[in-house]
Design brief:
Elements (H helix, E strand, L loop, with lengths): L1 H23 L4 E5 L10 H4 L15 E4 L7 E4 L2 E2 L3 E5 L2 E2 L22 E6 L13 E6 L12 E11 L4 E11 L3 E12 L12 E2 L8 E2 L9 E14 L2 E15 L7 E18 L2 E17 L7 E2 L5 E2 L3 E17 L4 E18 L13 E21 L4 E15 L11 H8 L5 E17 L2 E12 L3 H5 L6 H5 L9 E2 L8 E13 L6 E20 L16 E26 L2 E16 L13 E10 L2 E10 L17 E12 L2 E8 L37 E9 L1
């Protein structure tokens, strides 16, 4: 009888694994999966020398990056970024706890600890998350490993790297010890870097008067781009028969991180994470459950490249800002096998988020005393979702998926106060509001895949996705003066913002399709074309204060004070990717060409303006050579000029550019050596998604540079070594 039960469970496990895992990863998504060092890990080269986990996504179709701090880039999926993209890190829906979004979800995991990445662009199954409209990114650290029955397992890995341009240096280590039922894994990393340099000067050199260090920022130096980050994770796992229980404990400390496109810098970010999950196989299918808690303590002020001392006598010391965010969540999902054809996924998610954002008074400052400025006081954002998703394999050629998610988002914030009497009018008006908001959101997804034979696959689908505003979009309240408005900026455009409590949730309607042609073995050649169209009702976009009936201070420094309103937007584009095996098994090895081309166009249909931070037409072309243990890659990155910019934000234009990168790796037994040169020809360029350069000088006053973009990194020679045991 026990054998029969076990056999049934294993049959269910195999069936569900082939259905659930494959089906979650089929529809308009990119899947990259890590593996041990000696098993041709596709993430191995990408991880070496990386500090910013978001950069692991940079070579995926439809994905670009908002550049921010050295470990805090924000992924953009089909022209939409930040909270419009659902990001899950080890199953946790993390939230940026900062008025400038300096600590986005992917900053909480080091690249060396990433084992797998999934990018679902456009149409995302409802089971993969709600409260987002652009897509879903799933990043996981290593799954637990166990020894064979009655045995033991001991393994580990260590690595280090160095980059010449910004003297970036890092190290990481991981170790696993396990029996056949119990597994324990530790991973840790540290990285630090100085300011990076552009290929040539893009501004005048400057002595930063009143800075903490008396810094001199050279003309080719990108100020406020230095950083340091330390991460630790301890994971325990217990398995019994077809059941797995895992506990992950995470700890992060970022003592400093400069931001070239923000007026403030990060002067501390401490995060503690507790993440418990269960997975079990039953006769009816798979049960998954998770509960987590994440606590972030975050601080901002001015690092050495920005002026710290203000006032006629230089007796006003900085502008300390603090954030405390508490994120608690729970998820449960059952994948029920109804028949050989049908799988039903049922689930529920709950997230409880609390945020306090306050700015301490500053001695000798008339504008920043005598009270503590409460930017967000007891901000609350609670979300409860339920969903159902039906998957049907009608025959070997046709698969369909239909899903419905219902979500309720409740938001509120406490009464606020400003530094002093000058802020009383705005604070009184905000405190008089009924600040409680409840959004009832609906998501729909319908997907179909047709595979006529082993050499072609066609997919098409429709999705309606909804996102409620974040706490800053609704509850950043002060329009009293430019200084305070400057400090609420999660866009990197140098402007000042005040929120809008009357914002409605965004609702996006997306149509997408894809066609994938390839050889039967998917080794010799492949071509994939994926067009899409999205129309967003109640799109939250920047607007002049007067257009929203708000009075904001006038500015003379070239930047603007803005608010947010609901409008209508449209985005469309296409991603093209392919590969071709050029030569196989010659005396010089095998050669494979790969290419990615992405295009997106974004328009605000209400105002006729362009959408902000839309990546221009770009392509990546590469040739890879494999010869024995050697792998060599030459890649060209080509980006057209950014001429379609958003007028309401005074977004900056950038020129087109082309960059060459060279990477070489050698694997020998348990050792891997990586060498590379990024921007081989030392070409100068401005980052199209880098925002406005405000990385030096008196960023709290009117002396900051205006009209300058953030320059990209010049030539850098990089080296890394990884050893496994």
């Amino acid at each position: 009888m026990q054998f029969a039960k076990t056999g049934t469970a294993l049959a269910v496990a195999l069936a569900l694994s082939s259905v659930a895992h494959a089906d979650e990863a089929q529809f308009t998504e990119i899947v990259i999966t890590g593996a041990p060092l000696k098993q041709a890990d596709p993430l191995a080269a990408a991880r070496v020398g990386r500090s910013d986990t978001a950069t692991l996504l940079a070579d995926q179709p439809g994905v670009s990056l908002y550049r921010a701090g050295g470990v805090s880039s924000l992924p953009v999926v089909h022209g939409m970024a930040d909270d419009r993209v659902r990001v899950k890190v080890d199953g946790m829906d993390l939230v940026s706890a900062c008025a400038n979004h300096m600590n986005p979800p992917l900053s909480y995991i080091d690249p060396s600890n990433v084992a797998s990445v999934e990018v679902m662009a456009g149409i995302t199954p409802v089971s993969m998350g709600g409260d987002s409209i652009a897509g879903t990114i799933v990043v996981d650290s290593a799954a637990p490993e166990f020894a064979a029955a009655g045995g033991s397992l001991l393994k580990g890995q260590a690595g280090t790297f160095y980059h010449s341009n910004n003297a970036a240096q890092g190290a990481n280590v991981s170790a696993t010890i396990a029996s056949d039922t119990l597994s324990m894994r530790y991973s840790g990393s540290t990285v630090r870097a100085q300011n990076y340099k552009a290929a040539h000067a893009f501004k005048a050199p400057a002595v930063i008067t009143g800075s903490l260090t008396g810094a001199v920022v050279a003309g080719d130096e990108v100020g406020s781009s230095s950083y340091r980050s330390d991460n630790h994770q301890l994971a325990f796992a217990l398995r019994h028969d077809n059941h797995l229980l895992e506990l992950k404990l995470g700890l992060q400390n970022i003592p400093y991180q400069g931001f070239p496109n923000q007026r403030m810098d990060m002067t501390g970010n401490d995060s503690q994470q507790v993440n418990l999950r269960y997975q079990g196989m039953y006769r009816w299918g798979l049960l998954k459950a998770r509960a987590w808690n994440e606590h972030t303590q975050h601080s901002m002020n001015f690092l050495g490249d920005k002026q710290y001392w203000y006032g006629a006598l230089f007796n006003v010391a900085g502008m300390p800002m603090y954030t405390d965010g508490k994120n608690t969540g729970a998820q449960v999902q059952g994948d029920v096998i109804l028949s050989e054809r049908d799988t039903l996924r049922l689930g529920s998610e709950y997230q409880r988020y609390r945020l306090n954002d306050w700015w301490s008074p500053v001695a000798n400052s008339m504008m920043m005393s005598p009270n503590t400025f409460q930017n967000i006081n007891n901000g609350q954002r609670d979300r409860l979702d339920v969903f159902a998703e039906w998957e049907a394999h009608w025959n070997p050629q046709w698969v369909s998926q239909l899903g419905l998610r219902s979500g309720t988002v409740k938001m509120n914030a406490g009464a606020v106060q400003g530094y002093g009497a000058a802020y009383n009018a705005a604070a009184t008006a905000f405190n008089a509001l009924n600040r409680q908001r409840t959004d009832n959101n609906i998501d729909l997804s319908a997907l179909a895949r047709y595979t006529p034979d082993g050499q072609q696959t066609f997919e098409a689908g429709y999705a309606m996705k909804t996102r409620s505003p974040n706490l800053y979009e609704r509850f950043a309240w002060s329009n009293s003066n430019t200084m305070v408005m400057n400090m609420n900026n999660w866009y990197g455009d140098g402007n000042g913002y005040v929120g809008n409590p009357n914002l409605k949730p965004e609702v996006a309607h997306t149509l997408s399709a894809s066609a994938d042609w390839h050889d039967a073995g998917q080794e010799a050649w492949e071509l994939k074309i994926a067009p899409y169209y999205t129309r967003v009702q109640n799109y939250i976009d920047a607007a002049t204060c007067t257009s929203a009936g708000i009075t904001c201070p006038a500015r003379t420094d070239g930047f603007l004070n803005l608010t947010l309103t609901n409008q209508t937007a449209r985005l469309y584009g296409a991603d093209v990717s392919g590969k071709l095996l050029l030569v196989k098994g010659s005396a010089y090895g095998s050669f494979t060409a790969t290419g990615i081309l992405s295009y997106v166009d974004g328009k605000n249909l209400t105002t006729g303006d362009n959408l902000y931070n839309i990546m221009p037409l770009n392509t990546k072309l590469a040739v890879e050579q494999r010869l024995g243990n050697w792998t060599n890659t030459l890649q060209a990155r080509l980006v057209s000029a950014k001429s379609r910019v958003q007028a309401v934000r005074k977004e900056l234009r950038t020129g087109g550019y082309g960059l060459l990168d060279l990477h070489s790796s050698y694997e020998w037994k348990q050792v891997r050596v990586d060498l590379g040169i990024e921007n081989l020809l030392n070409k100068f360029y401005l980052d199209p998604l880098g925002g406005a350069y405000v990385g030096q000088g008196a960023t709290m006053g009117t002396g900051v540079l205006y009209g300058t973009g953030v320059a990209g990194m010049g030539r850098s020679i990089n080296a890394g070594v990884t050893v496994s045991f």
